[in-house]
Fold:
Amino acid sequence: MQQSHILSLRDRRAGDGPVCDINRNEGGSIHVLGQSTGILSWTEVLALNDPHEVIRIVEAAAGLRAPERTPPSGRSALTFRVISRFLDALLHERHPWDARNAFLDASGWESTRQSLARFPFAEAAATPHEDDLLGEPYYRFWILTRNGEARAVIDTGANLYLSDRVLDLSERYALARRSLSRLTGEVVDLVASDG
Structure:
């Protein structure tokens, strides 16, 4: 069976169903729910000169419109912007870095929660919230790993959990004068250092 990574976009005002599912499978293509064939192969993605073109193609296939103006980053958006920049900053490190959701949704197979035991503040925060996706609190947590070893946890409320403390990334973003580069540099220093 082929492994897939699915990004489900949901409108919280519209109920439980997805607005669209964007599926990236290990077999080499990107799909959008409701289409029988892939809209892009990885060969096509890598051949594009403009990386933003991939986004435009997927948006069009999913029936999504690009915003005319980028809205300010709320806590959830800040979480994913930090994760993206963090992974980009460490892309060429000797040991591979990754961000994995704390809930392994196996779509029909046995789904499991990843352990947050090394991060007691994250474990304590993993209580049900009214707006949890499918009622599962672990969907809110992303584990940053190096070589498969958990190094930190970030939740969709923009909280960074280290083994001994929790930091509010939204507050730190404000202190960094809303510079994502400064904030990400601080996160890299905290999470990637061996000290």
Notes: The chain has a mean pLDDT of 83.
